[in-house]
Amino acid sequence: MKQLIAAAFLFLSVSLFAQNQSSTRDFIDKANFLQINKDWTITAEFYSGLGEYVKFYPVEVMDLKSKETRDALLLNMHAKSGADWVDAEAWVGLDEVAGLIDFVESYVIPNLDLDLRKKSREFIFESKEMKLSFMVHERQRRISIWLNNYGKEGGSKYYFWTESQINNITYLLQVLKRIK
């Protein structure tokens, strides 16, 4: 009986974790041999004053045995987590890219010049592996990015923000449209 309960708990834990992975990470996890093709000609890069960065790349992931491919968005983050520097990645599957394009076109770009008085407005896009926030507070603008599934108890320990690189959001839109 104890073994049955332990097996059920393990299955439930794995199932809940898998639901928080992108379709691309699921594809990667199932393949034994992979080829990842990055398109270095078009990237979107955001830097902070601390030396942190987030880079977005369009990629094609290929299972070398079946020759099946998936197009996706790869996000590489180099950030400070507590006292340590960390490198992490997240995947945004093709099934989520259209939503991110719509978010950037409908909520971020039209509000780049928004000027609020004693108010703030925040727009949030959440995918399975990352969250992107665009916040306007009076005349300040901030882009924040969290990577999901890396922290204890589901919290993200990888976080990046910038106020000086806001206009690079147009490069992100170009990367996204290259994938779609």
Description:
It is a single chain. By secondary structure, the protein is of the alpha+beta class. α3 (94-108) runs antiparallel to α4 (169-179). Helices cover 29% and strands 39% of the residues. The chain has helices at 2-19, 23-30, 94-108, 169-179, and strands at 34-38, 44-47, 53-63, 69-81, 84-93, 120-126, 130-137, 140-147, 158-162. The chain is built from four helices and nine strands; from the N terminus they run ααβββββαββββα. The chain starts with a helix and ends with a helix. Mean pLDDT is 85; it is low at 1-18.
Global structural class: alpha+beta
Task: Let me know the number of strands.
Answer: 9
- What string, H for helix and E for strand, traces the elements in order? HHEEEEEHEEEEH
End-to-end gap:
49 Å
* CATH top level class name: Mainly Beta
Report the C-alpha radius of gyration, rounded.
18 Å
Question: Ranges with pLDDT <50 over ≥5 residues?
Answer: 1-18
| Total count of domains | 1
In DSSP terms, counting alpha (H) and pi (I) runs of 4 or more, how many helices?
A: 4
Query: What would you say the CATH architecture is?
Result: Roll
CATH topology: Transcriptional Co-activator pc4, Chain A
Q: Which key phrases capture this entry?
A:
180 residues, alpha+beta, Transcriptional Co-activator pc4, Chain A, five-stranded antiparallel sheet, four-stranded antiparallel sheet, 29% helix
Compact overview of the structure:
With 180 residues, the protein is of the alpha+beta class.
SSE order and pairing:
Elements lengths: L1 H18 L3 H8 L3 E5 L5 E4 L5 E11 L5 E13 L2 E10 H15 L11 E7 L3 E8 L2 E8 L10 E5 L6 H11 L1
Antiparallel strand pairs: 1-3, 2-3, 3-4, 4-5, 6-7, 7-8, 8-9
